[in-house]
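Entry 12.
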Amino acid sequence: MSSAAAPAGRARVAADALARELDIEIIARPAAGSLAEAAELMGLAAKDIVKSLVVKRSDGTFLFALVPGGRAISWPKLRTVVGVNKLQMPAAEVAFAATGYERGTITPLGSTTAWPVYVDERIRGARVALGAGEHGFSMFVQADGLIAALDATVADISIPE
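Predicted 3D structure (tokens):
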């Protein structure tokens, strides 16, 4: 994506958070080779790093699934909550086209399309870190505020990795 096509990822995230009156903090962070290393670098427990995953429905639309570190999407649970029989992880270029973000930077905030958001219930009450729209940055936010700002559906949608 060229810079003329859309503002940089961090700027989109910040603008969307401001529009939603959501308090976020975006920080530069060094690259990490693992979830455990990333958590240590940011002074967090692994569970407080939330993965924003883009999921494709069979009708060609998408949704975001937010899952805490150390856990993975439970496909049967997520299908039940969404009310569909088929969901899949799209290829990286499809996820980019759906959100305007590359893998590793994805967040519902500032997405080029406001897809529905499903949040694993385990993040409630925590201050969490998510992608901030650009490589080398993370966003910190209170999970409950994020859930409310995104009108997210909260459910048990994950299993231990």
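Annotation: The chain is about 25% helix and 30% strand. Helices lie at 9-19, 35-42, 75-82, 92-99, 143-150.
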